[in-house]
Amino acid sequence: MNKIAVIILAAGKGSRMKSDLAKVLHKVAGKSMVNHVIEAAMQVASGHIHVVVGHQAEKVQKEIQKKHNVQFAFQKELLGTGDAVRVALPGVDASIDHVLVLCGDVPLIKKKTIADLVSTHLHQMADLTVLAAKVKDPTGYGRIIQNNDGQLLAIREEADATDLERQINIVNSGIFCFEKGFLESGLGRIQNNNSQGEYYLTDLVEVAVQNKSKTLVKITDDAEQVMGVNTIEQLTRINTAFHKASNELS
């Protein structure tokens, strides 16, 4: 049995929310966003969930601990998603073979979507698998660049994309599954020579391609469930989507 650990990224400030509350503590249907994500993750890794905290770390931990027994890692400086995962890795059990990375601000993610991503990753024996979404309007998202065999070649941010690449409507969700050995070695190779001075998890795609490691893309047509929350307007939209989905199920 392949053992899976989950790392949930929940350290960000969420300054665009224009709120004193840490981003992941904003509520959807009366429950903080990060707790929605933890509940979805429990299907694949109930005993191996690690939450990376940073901004308002104590408040975030307190809120999570009311409902869940998870492990925490502290990101002292917010140096990007790659750094956040690097901070959490030492706490991951030595018996773990694969690591799923989720975002604490994607509260509509479904258990089945996570389980399908992990299952595809394991069956195809991939080193890196990204969850991508097919969207009507890809503006603002990182585009998924693939070859004819479906291998992931790059995740191209909009600012760096060519006119042709901007027409691609399959975009990065920020959710990944990694073979642990590849993840550990790859994180040691990524650089922070970008405008933000941050270590990006997406740079591991370039490492994988250089290594000739196996990369996969798992695509969901349900883009709404991988929609992140960066503004109060998006939070309102997510709440509306959540209630609509609940009504359809009842």
TrEMBL record:
InterPro entries: GlmU-like (IPR050065), NTP_transferase_dom (IPR005835), Nucleotide-diphossugar_trans (IPR029044). Catalyzes the last two sequential reactions in the de novo biosynthetic pathway for UDP-N-acetylglucosamine (UDP-GlcNAc). The C-terminal domain catalyzes the transfer of acetyl group from acetyl coenzyme A to glucosamine-1-phosphate (GlcN-1-P) to produce N-acetylglucosamine-1-phosphate (GlcNAc-1-P), which is converted into UDP-GlcNAc by the transfer of uridine 5-monophosphate (from uridine 5-triphosphate), a reaction catalyzed by the N-terminal domain. Residues 6-216 form the Nucleotidyl transferase domain. Keywords: Acyltransferase, Nucleotidyltransferase, Transferase. This is NTP transferase domain-containing protein. It catalyses: N-acetyl-alpha-D-glucosamine 1-phosphate + UTP + H(+) = UDP-N-acetyl-alpha-D-glucosamine + diphosphate; alpha-D-glucosamine 1-phosphate + acetyl-CoA = N-acetyl-alpha-D-glucosamine 1-phosphate + CoA + H(+). PANTHER family: BIFUNCTIONAL PROTEIN GLMU, NUCLEOTIDYL TRANSFERASE. Transmembrane segments: none annotated. GO terms for molecular function: glucosamine-1-phosphate N-acetyltransferase activity; UDP-N-acetylglucosamine diphosphorylase activity.
